[in-house]
Amino acid sequence: MRIRRLALLGGGLAAMLIVLQTTPGIRSYIEAVQAGRISYTATVWPDDDEAAMPVFASGQAVALTKADRELLEEIQQEAAKRNIAPIDAKLDRVWKAIPGYNGLEVDVDETFRLAQQRMLPGSISYVMKEIEPQVQLQDLGAVPVYRGNPKKPMVSLMINVAWGNEYLPSMLETLRKEGVHATFFLDGMWLNKNADTAKQILSEGHELSNHAYSHKDMRTISRSKTVEEITKTETLLKKLGVANTLFAPPSGYYNEQTVQVAAGMKLQTVLWTLDTVDWKKPQPSWIIDRIAKNVEPGSLILMHPTASSSQALPSMIKSIKSKGLQLGTVSELLSSKRVPEKSAAES
Asked: Given CB 3.0 to 4.6 Å as the disulfide criterion, which of 42, 165, 268, 278 pairs with 309?
């Protein structure tokens, strides 16, 4: 009989390795014994098919038979096929800062534990975990964003509000019916007069963010005035309990100073990928067609509370969803977190 065993040294918690197959689960077991997280029981086994071997998985010691070893090997081989590497955030010549996107990795220990204990009947159900990229958006410095990661199947509606109160109720009703949350960038002067409306928007799960205070051309004002414009609106947002992280410059006008000031206040400067140009009062069908033809993963879609966008919004959302894209807030889009896959029932 060939014997493999783990033995305690002098009753302590240091493990001595005689002969051992080095699988991730076994390494975890050894580390747990050494750290004192689990108690150790020495096991001796012969070379028959049903011999037992101790293995650590999620805090428990379980038996590893020949069948188990084959199962573990199958999981490890499949894991190598299913693992998706994370994508680092990067600077692009055209799109400026592009967020990263989490990778996916099979949790071998947890998948094996559930399969070995028959907690998941039938074929193996692989437990996945997200792996963050080494370079995140915040690591790129004070650089504006025009789009999300092109591998992320999500789109965001960014609604700039400085006027157009009469169209907000219908837009909110559409968003409510479609189960969509948007990001409303609020002009400070508007917010100062319409706090109750802002509270309603917030209560419906939408994101509120900073659109400066008085809709000035941020390229032409001093640094101190830039600070004032952003700070005054930020103060109003905080009164609503909003912990804001975004800034959209009015009319998309900005310079290096604008971005630096916003970054100094821990705000990411955000522009857009697609513009509805709704302020020109186009026909709703023109907006719908424009979005349908050009929307893609990571798109930030700019709009305002106008008659054109209000009427186009239901079909815009349907068109976006028909491409298999989900809609989320700007913060959700810029996050490196993966978009959960929808079940067949949800599609």
From this structure: 278
